[in-house]
């Protein structure tokens, strides 16, 4: 079922990043080689027999990502926050323009919900400082929140140039596979957490009862169900979502578990089947991608892509690349998005994306006044 035509594999193998650190959750290693290939071909890249191999693929399915062979290493010790003096922050687009794009998308959805039922619109923050940013230290700071999987992946730029870095802390599991058993844990529908415990509980209850958020969530769960069901001999999906929390956000989440018909189906073929889900793109996919391209004044790059690990048995765990930044020397581009349905209100979605930036902003030491 998963066999593809065996056309020649277009990959390039690079050792230019040898020795660079790579961090994913509790795994820490030093890069040996990097293989660059699109996600569609990733399961055909020959992997050495032992250990885990890490990978990161961009939002755009046809753009190449990277699979890393690493050697185990001692994790770096976390250090204190960076001290910098000159800093700037540019908003892409500014919040008012983002709100206008949300209003247009919600109106389009209300007019013709069969043509577009949901779209995820993102915005970016361009941060510049006078000191080089340390991607591993930033990921270690993010790792203080044990509800998320933090990561720092070097992204090769070619021709001996220093890498860019993909750094973040994701709360969302796209797909894990252990033998025949698979799991996915989509999140969609969010609200900012509150410092006061009673207000925090009230916010969670408000989310759980929100028809707008339940609609956003249902679209994702149905999509994943419909794609996985033909490959599964059983697939269990709870009737309603539960609450998931990170240090700064509440989310609606649904844990989906199943058993594959074909145990040998490669983990990365399942990842390719699912990515991008309506938790980051929308539904129907083609209309959502068109809306995203029109509305967002930047390339998503590796934001809203997928990253994880795979082993030689084709088991693995792949996450949705969220709550992240692309770091390049003294610059960082942060990303955050929100699911838009017909009932979405522009100001609420601006506030939601602002809340989703909190984790990365505080790991980078970007003050609220900037
Ligand atoms: C697109 C993002 O979050 C997704 C994951 C959880 C909740 C989401 C939401 O409520 O819209 C998004 O689907 C992001 O953090 O940039």
Automatic annotation (TrEMBL):
Q: Which domain of life is it from?
A: Bacteria
Q: Which UniProt keywords apply?
A: Isomerase
Keyword Isomerase on entry: yes
E.C. code: 5.4.4.2
Q: Which Pfam families match?
A: Chorismate_bind
Q: Which GO terms describe its molecular function?
A: isochorismate synthase activity
Gene3D superfamilies (alphabetical):
Anthranilate synthase (3.60.120.10)
Chorismate-utilising enzyme C-terminal domain boundaries: 96-356
The catalytic activity, as recorded, is: chorismate = isochorismate
Metal-binding recorded as keyword: no
Family statement? Belongs to the isochorismate synthase family.
Q: What is this protein called?
A: isochorismate synthase
């Amino acid at each position: 079922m998963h066999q593809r035509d065996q056309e020649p594999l277009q990959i390039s193998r690079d050792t230019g990043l040898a020795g660079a650190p790579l961090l994913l959750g509790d795994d820490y290693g030093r890069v040996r080689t990097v293989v660059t290939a699109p996600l569609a071909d990733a399961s055909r890249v020959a992997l050495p027999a032992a250990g885990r191999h890490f990978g990161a693929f961009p939002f755009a399915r046809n753009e190449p990502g990277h699979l890393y062979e690493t050697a185990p290493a001692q994790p770096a010790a976390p250090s204190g926050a960076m001290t910098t003096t000159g800093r700037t922050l540019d908003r892409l687009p500014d919040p008012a323009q983002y709100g206008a794009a949300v209003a247009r998308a919600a109106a389009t959805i209300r007019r013709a919900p069969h043509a577009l039922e949901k779209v995820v619109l993102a915005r970016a923050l361009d941060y510049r400082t006078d000191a080089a940013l340390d991607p591993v230290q930033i990921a270690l700071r993010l790792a203080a929140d044990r509800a998320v999987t933090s990561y720092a992946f070097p992204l090769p730029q070619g021709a001996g140039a220093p890498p860019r870095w993909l750094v973040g802390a994701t709360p969302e599991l796209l797909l894990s596979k252990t033998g025949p058993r698979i799991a996915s844990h989509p999140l969609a529908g969010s609200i900012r957490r509150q410092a006061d415990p009673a207000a925090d509980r009230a916010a969670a209850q408000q989310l759980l009862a929100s028809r707008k958020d339940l609609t956003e969530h249902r679209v994702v769960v149905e999509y994943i169900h419909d794609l996985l069901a033909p490959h599964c001999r059983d697939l269990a999906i709870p009737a309603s979502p539960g609450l998931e929390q990170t240090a700064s956000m509440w989310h609606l989440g649904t844990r989906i578990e199943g058993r594959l018909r074909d145990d040998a189906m490669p983990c990365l073929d399942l990842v390719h089947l699912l990515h991008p889900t309506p938790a980051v793109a929308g539904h129907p996919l083609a209309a959502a991608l068109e809306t995203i391209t029109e509305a967002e004044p930047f390339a998503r790059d590796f934001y809203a892509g997928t990253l994880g690990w795979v082993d030689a048995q084709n088991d693995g765990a792949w996450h949705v690349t969220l709550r992240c930044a692309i770091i390049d020397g003294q610059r960082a581009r942060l990303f955050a998005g929100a699911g838009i349905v017909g009932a979405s209100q522009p100001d609420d979605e601006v506030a939601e994306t602002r809340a989703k930036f909190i984790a990365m902003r505080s790991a980078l030491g970007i003050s609220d006044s900037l």
